[in-house]
Specification:
Blueprint (H helix, E strand, L loop, with lengths): L11 E3 L6 H11 L12 H5 L5 E5 L13 E10 L6 E9 L8 H15 L4 E6 L4 H9 L3 E2 L6 E3 L2 E8 L3 E9 L1
Parallel strand pairs: 4-5
Antiparallel strand pairs: 1-2, 2-3, 3-4, 5-9, 6-9, 7-8, 8-9
Length: 179
C-alpha cells in the first residue's frame, strides 16, 4: 500500500538557467535542515552545468521565488559528466522543497539525469553524501545507489565513508549506481 501523496499534477521539468540561481541560493541551506550548503553550490553550477542539470517546478504555492502564480521551484539536481571519464556522471546536489518531499520529485530528477547519461553512453552515476545524513543515505539506497567500500573507506556512522574527503575535514560517503 502506497501512503505517499501523489506528485503535483502541474509538475514540469526543465534545464535550469543562471537566473534560477538567486532563488535556489536563498533556500538551499533551509532545504538541507540548516546544514551550510550554499558554499558548495555557487552560481557557476547554474551558469556552466545547466545542460546536465534539471529543475522541477510547479505553479503551486511553494517555492523560493516568483510572484503568486509564477512557476515555483519544487526541486533541482545539479550534475555533470566527468571530463576525465565520460562514462561517469556526477551528481553534485539534489534538493527538494521540504514541503514537497516524498512525492517522487527527487527520484524523477535523478532519473532525468540518468537518462541523459545513458543517452551519452555513460555507465555509472556517482553521488556524495555526509555519512551522518540519514535522509540522503535512505534516498540514494532507494534509488539503487550502493556505498563505495573501496580502498580508503572505513565505517563512519555505519556506512563506508572517506574521512576528510573534502577540505581535509569533511567526511563523505560515496555512492555508485550502474545505469
Amino acid at each position: 500500500m502506497n501512503d505517499q501523496p501523489a506528485p503535483p499534477t502541474d509538475l514540469r521539468f526543465r534545464r535550469p538557467v543562471e537566473a534560477d540561481y538567486p532563488g535556489i541560493a536563498a533556500v538551499v541551506d533551509d532545504w538541507w535542515d540548516g546544514r551550510v550548503l550554499h558554499g558548495l553550490l555557487p552560481r557557476l553550477w547554474f551558469r556552466h552545468f545547466a545542460g546536465t542539470s534539471w529543475l522541477a517546478e510547479t505553479d503551486g504555492p511553494v517555492g523560493p521565488y516568483g510572484p503568486d502564480g509564477a512557476p515555483r521551484v519544487a526541486g533541482f539536481l545539479v550534475g555533470f559528466v566527468s571530463p576525465l571519464d565520460p562514462r561517469v556522471g556526477v551528481i553534485q546536489a539534489v534538493g527538494v522543497n521540504p514541503n514537497q518531499r516524498r512525492l517522487g520529485i527527487g527520484r524523477a530528477l535523478v532519473e532525468h539525469f540518468v537518462e541523459d547519461l545513458r543517452a551519452a553512453g555513460g555507465s555509472t552515476v556517482e553521488a556524495l553524501a555526509w555519512p551522518d545524513n540519514r535522509r540522503a543515505l535512505r534516498f540514494l539506497a532507494a534509488l539503487g545507489f550502493e556505498p563505495d567500500a573501496g580502498p580508503g573507506s572505513r565505517p563512519l556512522y555505519g556506512v563506508p565513508a572517506f574521512e576528510g574527503y573534502d577540505f581535509g575535514t569533511e567526511d563523505r560517503a560515496r555512492f555508485l549506481r550502474k545505469v
